[in-house]
Amino acid sequence: MKIGGYLCTGCGIGDRLDTKSLETVAVREGRIGFCKTHDFLCSQAGVDMINADLAAEGDDKVTKLVIMACSRRAKTEAFNFGAVPTARVNLREGVIWIRPEGSEHEETTQEMAADYIRMGCAEVKAMHQADASGEQGKNNHIMIVGGGVTGMTAALEASKAGYYASIIEKSDRLGGVMGQLHKRHPLRSPYQHPQDTGVAAMIAAVEADDKITVYLNSKVASTSGAPGRFNVTIASSVGAGTQAEFGAIVQATGFTPYDANNLPEFSYGKSANVVTQLELEAMAQAAGDGAIKRADGKEVKNVVFVQCAGQRSEKEGHLSWCSGHCCSTSVKQAMYFKDSNPEIETTILFDDLRTPGAGGENFYRSAQDKMVTFRKGKVSTVEAAGSDLKVNFKDLILNEDTHMEADLVVLATGMMPNAGVNIDAPKDDAANGEVKVPVESILNLQYRQGPDVPQLVNGFADSHFICFPYETRRTGIYTAGPVRRPMDGGQAQTDAMGAVMKAIQAIENSAIGRAAHPRSGDLSFPSFRKEGCTQCKRCTVECPFGAINEDEKGYPQYNEARCRRCGTCMGACPVQVISFKNYSIETVGAQLKAVEVPDEYSEKPRILVLACENDAYPALDMAAMKRNESSAFIRVIPVRCLGSTNTIWIKDALGSGYDGVVMMGCKKGVDYQCHFVKGSEMAHVRMAKIGDTLSTMNLESERVAVHEVAITDIDRAPKLLDEMVEVINRVGMSPFKF
Amino acid sequence: MAKEYSYYPGCSSQKGASSSNLEKSVETLCEELDIKLNPIPDWNCCGASIGYAGGGELPRMTLSARNIALSEKHHPDQDIVATCAACWLNTREVNERLLHNPKLKEETNIALQAVKLEFSGKKKVRHMVEVLIEDVGYDALAAKVKKPLEGLKIAGYVGCQTNRPFGIDGESFENPMYLDKMVETLGGEALTKYEKKVACCSGALMFSEPEKGQALVKDIIESAYDNGANMIVTPCPLCQANVEIYQDDINARYKTNFNMPVMYYSQLMDVAFGRNAKDAALDGNIIQSMELRKIADK
Amino acid sequence: MSTAVNQAMVEKYKGNFLKEVTENVEEGNWVKMCMQCGVCSGSCPLGPHWDHPPQEIFMMIRANKREEVLSSTSMWMCTSCYNCIARCPRGLPITHIMHGLAHYSKRIGLKPKNQPTEKFGQMFWDNLTKKGRVNELKLGLGLYFKDGFAEGVKVAMSKQKLGMNMMKAKRMSPMEMLGGHGVSDLAGFHAMLKKAEELEAARVGENTDKK
Predict the structure, then answer these.
(1) ipTM greater than 0.90, yes or no?
(2) Is C32's Cβ below 8 Å from some Cβ in A?
(3) What pTM was computed for the model?
């Protein structure tokens, strides 16, 4: 093993720092093979110099690298040396850009640079080259659960891309809810008129496609394995079950319409002339393009649509959320009437009219143009007087209670996701008197953490609404359509394309043992020292992705194809036996121990900063680009996720004389920004308990701070570090300096 | 050779009318810039902003259509230019509405048969400030400056109709800059933070609803004072009149002490181009700007 | 006459005021396109003085509040500043619609009583159509005397200084009392307007005829 050090003197590093002495620090204290300087290390000449050393023979061959230049986030292409363990020492963004010039600052700035070099040298020694485990398999077949437009679109897209798909549909037909519609919202410009649903053609295409297999009347009885090697039992309600292997899964299980019987105030159930949107679709289908007739055979002449019926409401038994499609659906349904006879009165009573999607606004305008009346009003009750109806509402523009007559009322009720079992639900729900209909599992995952994908809020499957919408918290399983958030059919089809792309990525990555999102391409995976493991199951419980099962003795089984490589298990382990080849308790522990801690009377405190590499570390980098000044006493170590922070690091730091520790992770909670969903939250939970450790050490609790930092906190992040400096000024230096 | 335009002066610009000083100062300006304005023969009133009470859509359309048709007949190759905001707006609006609505155009032309005219809609209808910005240009205007308006702090009051709905020089409705740019071009200091730049002076409602109108004008003047203005400048004759001539009434009503000169851009240009007070029609203002007069008399 | 038109309209549209507006009011076909954001109401310089700002007017039309809309003083508060037009996200020509509604209310005889802008507007129209050009002096004097002779003398006295100022500045001329400016082809001008008025009356007539 030979470690090569390369010190760049470009970008002002050479002007601001005494690089000669830094070279000495690298070689003498860092104890690496050599340290070469270059005035433009990321240039071709600089990179060639490094590559030549890597390619050398015998004793000259370099096997590990310490690049002492800019942030690990900069020049990633130039400094990409494949699997060669590489430490990046951040002298530019981490030191010279955040420190003011001037002789009074030179000493502390130089100390900072020297420490970072010691840290990089220590880190690289603890790193090993990561290789795929060999556990991986390749399977080009995608299981698609749900045979509505979402599922069918996913299957057709998979087939077009050259992959195989199996649709598992619980009913006896394909088409889902869209198959029950008369027409759908327009998908193409000028977005003015309802159009054919296209479901029949889509079913025909699915049936004609020899890469697609359809299982009707079927459910998933069991799913085990991991991406690339899912093992599934398909149960049929009409015949024998099937056993099949899949590479990835798309869950397109859609929604269940809200039960309008919960809305007696709107006379639903009392009058046959109060119907839901879905029921109106059946009436329209029956009418073809002719006059829509009520149950009593009378032609509808005056129809009122009640938006947000039983939804966007905090009332008991109502849905609190907006179902996204219902305004556009009422717009469409009003057109069913207007297009057949412009004289029919159609009124849409809305609170906030929202028509999301590319053509939504045009479609709304088109309805206005067709003389559909839109009134901003909140409906209180619908009274059934004989066969006619009286709709009582408050006009929100004219601020008056009023009413209108109707011969048909259509309720825009909401959608409830079919996401399966809520695996995070408190177990004692039944105990507090609530009788709940038992929810059937969709996937029946044979995972230690539960049978379905985790949910976020309101029963929708968890996925990040902007950054990674299709990623569930089970690698290789992707949700699409209303199961993950309320949406209309067009959006669900777009979703299907996205989810199937992710499924294909998962298949290809798992085939070569690479991580999928967000550490795409990472070959490292967690392993544990069995003799040290106490079978405490912390790692299994805390893994945000349900990757870890347990064997019969209670030891963890990592299933690395399910793993996202965040290191939350490593952070959770109380006996520190879990590690990755290139990221471990040791790689970080060695760094923090490599820092030189000046004595108590030096007035030079040391603050350890553990910063998430996804948001906090880039925020600090960008603060540096803006030349936002930071304290010279901080020593920053990037971590994969704050969830990977093991409390041993905090203890070690405080025990070796650091005066404070600042941890920076992503936003947690239902509006999380954590790339590993739960990592940041886990870190916060663990650190809430660090107080005991501090008090046994007789240290002030303020010496450890945990912050949520977003990538945009460019000005705030350095201020948080300044706050810790102030804390130390107040409570004094650590007594643990030796 | 002089640039020629088909000129629509409008009622208020006539001799002895409320914006005759605008007319005079524009005349001087045109001499300076070698612009020839050819009045549309026998033009009529555009209907202004208040004509709708008595006049329906079509009668009002025919008013401006007659003027455009006269211009098409007598000045076929010249753009129509107006100096009054309402005249410009009405004429341009009718031009565009007739082009967009074939039925309205057809009916208008039936009415125009009574005066043996026809509207074809081939004319471009422009405001005088567009001529200055687009055809002359800020640089050429700057080159003409002989007596820069040094030391004058000027609140550019664009108002409504020389701004909305058509806009000048593609500028924003909320913060058009052309008047400020003109002031800077003439060597004055433009008060670009003047909050009431595009506020309404109440237009014709100053006559029918004086209390409501004066409340609006009070704010327009007050904001100019707050910004340290020596004077307000405007391109619009009704704005000029409304903001200038009721200051006594406003002072009485609100116990204020307003005495704020309200000038036309054309008057400032005349002075800056070296013309005397008479040519710039400074006597046409009820409230005089001594600072401006001093520069004119230099 | 106007009452008869009104009756005919009521009869024809039977409570569908939106349709009546769409078919009879200048730019009225835009009313249905309002999306009720309220930017117009918030942008109006005289907003606080409208009984019902434009957003409400549009909703009242949909709610069939026919009499309430047409007899309202609201539309007469429009200063023609075009702020609502410039800002309307749906591009409604709100200024024109307000003018159109005001004019329509007059045409069918539902205009509010003693509305000063309505009176002044009519005076202005009469003034300009008489000679083809506005006679500012007569218009001003007419304005002073719109509420009767005694009130007029009072107002005129109070405006004496203003008038003197204007005359001094040569922006008002007593000569205007004698003839004043005007178009020379007055006969043609009048014939043109007469024809336009006939055509316009015929439009509304058509709408009242075909039942």
Answers:
(1) yes
(2) yes
(3) 0.90
